[in-house]
Write a structure and sequence with these properties.
This protein is of the alpha/beta class. The chain has one domain (about 1-145): D-tyrosyl-trna(Tyr) Deacylase, Chain: A. The protein is about 25% helix and about 40% strand. It is built from three helices and eight strands; from the N terminus they run E-E-E-H-E-E-H-E-H-E-E. The strands form two sheets. Strands 1, 2, 3, 6, 7 and 8 form a six-stranded mixed beta sheet that branches. A two-stranded antiparallel sheet has the order 4-5. Helix 1 (about 40-50) crosses helix 3 (about 100-115). The radius of gyration is 15 Å and the shape is globular.
Length: about 150
Amino acid sequence: MRAVVQRVTEASVTVEGEIVGRIGAGVMVLVGIAPTDTAVEVRWFADKVAHLRIWPDDAGKMNRSLLDEKGAALVVSQFTLYGDARKGRRPSFMRAAQGAGAEEVYQGCVAELEKAGVPCATGRFGAMMEVALVNDGPVTILLDSDKSF
């Protein structure tokens, strides 16, 4: 599983002219699912996003989490995070999970985050989406479960 976590003051996702997900302050999370991702990676993802200390404390040091800030998460599936452009000019997406299995893992990520106490909004799995956000900081963190175990 790969994720791009961006601290935001607001974010939204639009599908076919309709806003399907919107949050105020919190994190915009683009998540890519690998075919080998299981409940282990889902739990890792939710724990990492909920507890990632990317907000400043009173001393200005990044020491506060999404839970501490009572922020929300906008979670959007993005298979292109597994794009491999090392050869040629067109990325290969062979390492990205597809179909119902990928959607199930994605929905599990959202459910685990909510279970951890993070209010979540989502995009629409598999749809062409327009994502808008105001990056706060900017703060952007890359997560990769393959590098965590």
